[in-house]
Amino acid sequence: MPFTTLISATELAAELAGGACVVVDCRFDLANVDWGRGEYAAAHIPGAVYAHLDSDLSGPKTGTNGRHPLPAPDALRRTLSRLGIGDETQVVAYDEGSGMYASRLWWLLRWTGHESVAVLDGGFAKWTAEGRPTTRGDEQNAPREFTGSPRAELTVDVDTVAALATNRDWRVVDARAPERYRGEVEPLDRIAGHIPGAVNHFYKRNLTESGVFRSPGELRQMLGAATENVPPDHVVCYCGSGVTACHNLLALEHAGFHGAKLYPGSWSEWSSDAARAVERG
């Protein structure tokens, strides 16, 4: 049975023993874009390959399409093929701990129709805390053919999200920290605030104090309250640049809420146009 949302360290160790999956290290630091690759070279899960948020999991920036636009489909297929991911491959993504970057790769694969992908619950921090093996250096997989194509129903563009945010049959959910949502601080984008009508569910609420995901039941209760139980396919997630929103999408899927959508440009695209309305508080 494939893993489609989360995988534990114990389950991953068994998968590695059977040689049945591709593991991708997605560690990254927005303040130091070379940090993740350096950490990977110093120590990573044996057999893992590295994917960089900016160069592998994002497309070119224009100044108006957000800080982490989606890669073009052909470019994404080439990247996934280079990482050794084929159409039937079980993929496991991990980052340092929270899953915020690993969930971006999880979502990109789901976007292309690839269901057999999971995030390592607790990430590299939990793997090493349990005394599991690591290795150094750079590893590569033999390329495989990846043919998936984007599912248009899983994304919305800026004009669509503007219309849906004030439609009471829909919920637009902001994954950023509450103080950024309220517009009290904005460390990255040109304007502080949020999309008018959006509600806030900080992605870190999906995790326990020990850094693993809450149970499906807890997530159903929390996310159901945040979205006021509208149908899952009437939920749109966004954040600063389309990364931590994927964490909420993963949590929704793990909770059994299927079909929520991503606004890829997120606040960094929205706020790039001063004519777009901004809400604070």
Q: Which terms would index this structure?
A:
about 30% helix; 9 strands; 2 domains; four-stranded parallel sheet; five-stranded parallel sheet; about 280 residues; 10 helices; alpha/beta; Oxidized Rhodanese, domain 1; globular
Dominant shape: globular
Question: In terms of per-residue confidence, which ranges show pLDDT below 50 for 5 or more consecutive residues?
Answer: none
Approximately how much beta-strand content do the residues carry? 5-15%
Strand order of the largest sheet: 1-5-4-2-3
Sequence of secondary-structure elements:
EHEHEHEHEHHEHEHEHEH
Alpha carbon gyration radius: 18 Å
| Fold-level CATH name of the largest domain | Oxidized Rhodanese, domain 1
CATH H level, superfamily name of the largest domain: Rhodanese-like domain
The structural domain count equals 2
Mean pLDDT over the full residue set? 97
CATH class descriptor of the largest domain? Alpha Beta
Number of strands: 9
Give the helix/strand class: alpha/beta
Give a structural overview.
The protein folds into 2 domains: 6-129, Rhodanese-like domain (Oxidized Rhodanese, domain 1, 3-Layer(aba) Sandwich), CATH 3.40.250; 152-270, Rhodanese-like domain (Oxidized Rhodanese, domain 1). α4 crosses α9 (244-254). It has helices at residues 9-17, 35-42, 73-82, 102-111, 123-129, 158-164, 178-181, 216-227, 244-254, 266-270, and strands spanning 6-7, 21-25, 49-50, 90-94, 117-120, 171-174, 199-200, 235-238, 261-262. It is globular, with a radius of gyration of 18 Å. The strands form 2 sheets. It has a 5-stranded parallel β-sheet with strand order 1-5-4-2-3. It is built from 10 helices and 9 strands. The protein has 281 residues and is of the alpha/beta class.
